[in-house]
UniProtKB/TrEMBL annotation, chain A:
InterPro entries: AA_ABC_transptr_permease_3TM, ArtM/GltK/GlnP/TcyL/YhdX-like, Ectoine_EhuC, MetI-like, MetI-like_sf
The organism of origin for this protein: Streptomyces alfalfae
Transmembrane regions listed in the UniProt entry: 15-39, 51-72, 78-99, 149-171, 183-204
Annotated protein name in UniProt: Ectoine/hydroxyectoine ABC transporter permease subunit EhuC
Subcellular location: Cell membrane
Family: Belongs to the binding-protein-dependent transport system permease family.
Keywords of the record: Amino-acid transport, Cell membrane, Membrane, Transmembrane, Transmembrane helix, Transport
Alphabetical list of CDD domains matching this protein: TM_PBP2
Record-linked Pfam families: BPD_transp_1
Membrane topology field: Multi-pass membrane protein
Automatic annotation (TrEMBL), chain B:
Keyword Manganese on entry: no
Protein family per UniProt: Belongs to the ABC transporter superfamily.
Keywords recorded for this protein, A-Z: Amino-acid transport, ATP-binding, Cell membrane, Membrane, Nucleotide-binding, Transport
One term under GO cellular component: plasma membrane
Molecular function terms from GO: ABC-type amino acid transporter activity; ATP binding; ATP hydrolysis activity
Span of domain ABC transporter: 22-267
Main location: membrane
Protein name: Ectoine/hydroxyectoine ABC transporter ATP-binding protein EhuA
From TrEMBL, chain C:
Coiled coil, from the record: none
Family: Belongs to the binding-protein-dependent transport system permease family.
Subcellular location: Cell membrane
Residue ranges annotated for the ABC transmembrane type-1 domain, each copy included: 19-206
Domain of life of the source: Bacteria
Protein name stated in the entry: Ectoine/hydroxyectoine ABC transporter permease subunit EhuD
PROSITE patterns tied to this protein: ABC_TM1
CDD domains in UniProt: TM_PBP2
Keywords, alphabetical: Amino-acid transport, Cell membrane, Membrane, Transmembrane, Transmembrane helix, Transport
Organism: Streptomyces alfalfae
Transmembrane segments: 21-43, 55-78, 187-209
Length: 244, 271, 215
C-alpha cells in the first residue's frame, strides 16, 4: 500500500498544486473572458471580428496540444523559458477564456433589448449602460454555465501532469511507478477529483443564490444530489448556445 | 415638481412657452421595405401636451422612438429646442451626429415605456438615483432627496426598498414615471403607458400623469388608446394614418367634429 | 526565431499515420458515446429506483472526473482483473465512456423537449412502451439534438490527444515521438494547426446544420 510518507511528500502537495492551477487558470480565463465577450457584442465590425476570431481559434484548439506547444515549442523558438506550471496555467487560461467569453457574450445578448432602451432613455453612455445595467443583469445568468466550465477546467488541470507539473495526477503516476499498485492510487485520485468538483459546485451554487437575490429573483432550491451540472442554455463544454 | 432645466444651463435654449420645442422635417423611417413614416413634418410647442392617435402601425410609436434616438431616421431631420438631434453641422453640412452630441440634446428628453422597463437588479430608490448620479453627476444625497420627493408624488414613498418584481404593474409604471422625471426632462414621451396594465390599475397611473400635466410646464408627447385621458390632458391631438398627420386640432374638435373620414372611422372603432 | 521547414517535411508521413489513428479513435469513440449515452438517458427516466440511482451515480462520477485519469485507470487498473487493452482500444473506450455521460444529457434535453401530448397520444393509441420510444419519442428527440451531439464529436476530437499519455500514436503521440527522436520541436505546431483546420470547419458545418434542423 501507499506509504504515508510518500502520501505526505507527494500527494498532499499535489492536491495543493491542482488547486493552485485551477485557481490561477480560472482567474486568467475570467480576465480574458470579460473583455472578449463584451467586444464580441461591439457595434464596430472589426472589433467584433477580432474578438470572434479569438473565440473561434481557441475553441477549435486542443488544449493539450496547445499546452505542449507552449511548454516545448515556444521556449526554443522564441528563446524564452518559463516554469512548467506557468505554461500550464497559460494554456488552460487562454483556451478556457475563449469558452468563458461565449458565456459572457451569450448572457449579455440575453439581457432584454428593452433594458438597453431604458438606459438610452435615461441618457447613460454605452459604457455606463454596460457597467450599470447590462453586466449586473447578465451576471446571474453567467454563473450556472461558469460552474460547468469550472468543473471542466478542474478536470483539465490534470493535463499539466503531462508537462511535468507535480499536481495530484502527477503524484499518482509517480506513485504507480514506485509501488506498482495502480488500483488504490487511481481510485483515490478519481475520488479526490470528484470531491473537489463537488465542493466547487457547492461554492458556485451559493454564489448563484446570492447573485439571484441581488437582482430581485428568488433562487430555486436545488437538492444536494440533484446533479452537479447546472442547467443553462449555454453549453460551456462545447462553447455553443445562448442568445444570439 | 417642475420641469425647469436647472441642470442644462449650458444649452442655449430658445424654447420659451409657446415657441417650437420639437420639429420634424421631412422625416422618413423605413423598416425593410415597409415605410413607416413618409416625409413627416410636424412640430410641438413648448409646454404643450400632445397626444398622437391613430390605428396601430400608423407610425405613432416610431415618432417617440425616433425622438428618444432608439431608432434613427433614414431621411430628414429632427430638432429639439432648436438643436439637431441625430445630426450635427460640420462645415455648413449636416452629418450624422456622434454619441456625444446626441447625448447632449437627448438629455432634454425622458420616456416612459409600455413595459415599464425598470431595472430589475436595482431597488426602487436606486432605479431613480442611478441616472441622476452617473449621468447628471448629482451627489448621492441630492439624488436621493429628489428620488424620494418623486416617489411621494407618485404615491409610492413607502416602497423605496422594494425590487421592481415585488410591485404590481401599476406601481411599476408609477416608478417608471418618477424615474423619467428624476432626470428633469423638458419633454416627456409616454408610449402607451397603460396598455400593459390590468384594467383596475390604469386609473392610478392616469391620475399621476394628469397631476403632472396640470401642475408642471413639462411638454408631453403621448401615444395612447385611452381616449378619455387624451381628451382630459391634451392641448392638441394629432391623428396619424399611414405615416402622415391627417388631422390635428384641440381634443374638442377632433373628438366631437372630426373633419377627416379616416378619423371618424378610427374614433368610431375605439370610442 | 529558430524554425526549420525541413523538419516539418520529414514529420509529414508520421503525421498522416497519426491523423488516421485519431480519426479511427474518434469514429469508434463517437459510436460508443452516442449509443451508451442513449442508454443512460433512457435508464434515468426509468420508473425503477434501482435502475435510476446507480446510473445517476455512475454518470455523475464519470462526468466530474478527468478523462486523463480515467484513461490511466482503464490502462493500468482494469488489466489487473479484466482484459488488457491496447492504447488505441483504451482511448476509444475512455473517450466513448466519458462523453457518453455528456451525450446522455443532450438526449435527456431532447426527450424532455418532446411535448407531453406525444406521450399521451401514444398511450391513447395503446402503443407498447418500446414502440412509444422507438417510433414516437426518439425520432422526434434525436432530430433536434443532432447538432448538439455533433458539437460533442468536436470536443472529443480535441480531447483525443490525451490518448498519447498512455502511448497511443495519434497525432500528438506521433509528434511527441518524432520530436523526442530528432530533438526538434516543429511537429507539435503542425498538429496544433491541424486541429484548428479540422475543428473550425466542422463547427461551421454544424452551425449550418443547426439552422436547418432546429426550429
Amino acid at each position: 500500500m501507499m506509504s504515508s510518507e510518500f502520501f505526505q511528500n507527494w500527494f498532499l502537495p499535489g492536491i495543493w498544486v491542482t488547486i493552485q492551477v485551477t485557481f490561477f487558470s480560472a482567474a486568467l480565463a475570467f480576465v480574458i473572458a470579460f473583455p472578449i465577450g463584451v467586444l464580441r457584442t461591439s457595434r464596430v465590425w472589426i472589433v467584433r471580428f477580432l474578438a470572434g476570431a479569438y473565440f473561434e481559434i481557441f475553441r477549435s484548439t486542443s488544449s493539450l496540444v496547445f499546452m505542449f506547444w507552449i511548454a516545448f515549442t515556444v521556449p526554443p523558438v522564441f528563446h524564452i523559458s518559463f516554469q512548467p506550471m506557468f505554461a500550464g496555467v497559460l494554456a488552460l487560461g487562454i483556451t478556457y477564456g475563449a469558452y468563458a467569453s461565449e458565456i459572457v457574450r451569450g448572457a449579455l445578448a440575453a439581457v432584454p433589448a428593452a433594458q438597453r432602451e431604458a438606459g438610452i432613455a435615461l441618457n447613460f453612455t454605452p459604457a455606463q449602460r454596460l457597467r450599470r445595467i447590462e453586466l449586473p443583469q447578465a451576471w446571474p445568468e453567467m454563473l450556472p454555465p461558469f460552474n460547468n466550465l469550472l468543473i471542466e477546467l478542474l478536470k483539465g488541470t490534470s493535463l499539466v501532469s503531462l508537462i511535468a507539473v507535480a499536481d495530484m495526477t502527477f503524484a499518482g503516476d509517480l506513485l504507480r511507478l514506485v509501488t506498482n499498485e495502480s488500483a488504490p492510487i487511481y481510485t483515490l485520485l478519481l475520488g479526490l477529483y470528484f470531491v473537489l468538483a463537488f465542493l466547487l459546485t457547492r461554492g458556485m451554487r451559493l454564489l448563484e443564490r446570492h447573485a439571484k437575490k441581488r437582482v430581485g429573483q428568488t433562487p430555486e432550491k436545488t437538492s444536494l444530489f440533484g446533479g452537479m451540472r447546472s442547467r443553462s442554455s449555454i453549453d460551456a463544454v462545447t462553447g455553443t448556445g445562448g442568445a444570439k | 415638481m417642475s420641469a425647469d432645466n436647472s441642470t442644462s444651463q449650458e444649452i442655449p435654449n430658445p424654447a420659451v412657452d409657446g415657441s417650437e420645442l420639437i420639429r420634424f422635417d421631412k422625416v422618413v423611417k423605413r423598416y425593410g421595405s415597409n415605410t413607416v413614416l413618409d416625409q413627416l413634418d410636424f412640430s410641438v410647442a413648448s409646454g404643450k401636451h400632445v397626444t398622437l392617435i391613430g390605428p396601430s402601425g400608423s407610425g405613432k410609436t416610431t415618432i417617440l422612438r425616433l425622438l428618444m434616438t432608439l431608432v434613427r431616421p433614414d431621411e430628414g431631420t429632427i430638432r429639439v429646442g432648436g438643436q439637431y438631434l441625430t445630426h450635427e453641422e460640420k462645415n455648413g453640412r449636416l452629418v450624422p451626429a456622434g454619441e456625444k452630441h446626441v447625448r447632449e440634446v437627448r438629455k432634454n428628453i425622458g420616456m416612459v415605456f409600455q413595459q415599464f422597463n425598470l431595472f430589475p437588479n436595482m431597488k426602487v430608490l436606486r432605479n431613480l438615483m442611478e441616472a441622476p448620479v452617473t449621468v447628471l453627476g448629482l451627489s448621492k444625497d441630492e439624488a436621493e432627496q429628489r428620488a424620494r420627493e418623486l416617489l411621494d408624488l407618485v404615491g409610492l414613498g413607502d416602497r423605496c426598498d422594494a425590487y421592481p418584481t415585488q410591485l404590481s404593474g401599476g406601481q411599476q409604471q408609477r416608478v417608471a414615471i418618477a424615474r423619467a422625471l428624476a432626470m428633469r426632462p423638458q419633454v416627456l414621451l409616454l408610449d402607451e403607458v397603460t396598455s400593459a396594465l390590468d384594467p383596475e390599475l390604469v386609473a392610478g397611473v392616469l391620475d399621476v400623469l394628469r397631476d403632472i400635466a396640470h401642475t408642471t410646464d413639462i411638454t408631453m408627447l403621448c401615444v395612447t388608446h385611452e381616449m378619455n385621458f387624451a381628451r382630459d390632458i391634451s392641448d392638441q391631438v394629432l391623428m396619424f394614418d399611414s405615416g402622415h398627420v391627417i388631422e390635428s386640432g384641440t381634443p374638442e374638435k377632433i373628438f366631437t367634429e372630426p373633419e377627416h373620414e379616416r378619423t371618424r372611422e378610427f374614433l368610431g372603432a375605439v370610442l | 526565431m529558430n524554425w526549420n521547414w525541413s523538419h516539418v517535411d520529414d514529420f509529414m508521413p508520421l503525421f498522416w499515420d497519426g491523423v488516421e489513428l485519431t480519426l479511427k479513435a474518434l469514429l469508434f469513440g463517437t459510436l460508443i458515446a452516442f449509443s451508451l449515452g442513449l442508454v443512460w438517458a433512457i435508464a434515468q427516466r426509468s420508473e425503477k429506483k434501482w435502475i435510476r440511482w446507480p446510473v445517476t451515480v455512475v454518470t455523475e462520477f464519470i462526468r466530474n472526473t478527468p478523462l486523463l485519469v480515467q484513461l490511466f485507470f482503464l490502462f493500468y487498473v482494469v488489466p489487473e482483473w479484466g482484459p488488457s487493452m491496447s492504447p488505441l482500444t483504451t482511448g476509444v473506450v475512455g473517450l466513448g465512456l466519458h462523453y457518453s455521460t455528456y451525450t446522455s444529457e443532450v438526449y435527456r434535453a431532447g426527450i424532455e423537449g418532446v411535448p407531453a401530448g406525444q406521450w399521451e397520444a401514444a398511450t391513447a393509441l395503446s402503443l407498447s412502451k418500446r414502440r412509444t420510444w422507438t417510433s414516437v419519442i426518439l425520432p422526434q428527440a434525436v432530430r433536434r439534438v443532432i447538432p448538439a451531439l455533433g458539437n460533442y464529436v468536436i470536443v472529443m476530437l480535441k480531447e483525443s490527444p490525451q490518448m498519447a499519455a498512455i502511448g497511443a500514436l495519434d497525432m500528438l503521440g506521433q509528434a511527441q515521438g518524432y520530436s523526442q527522436a530528432t530533438f526538434t520541436y516543429e511537429a507539435i505546431s503542425v498538429v496544433g494547426v491541424a486541429f484548428i483546420v479540422i475543428a473550425y470547419p466542422a463547427s461551421l458545418l454544424l452551425r449550418a446544420l443547426e439552422r436547418r434542423l432546429v426550429r
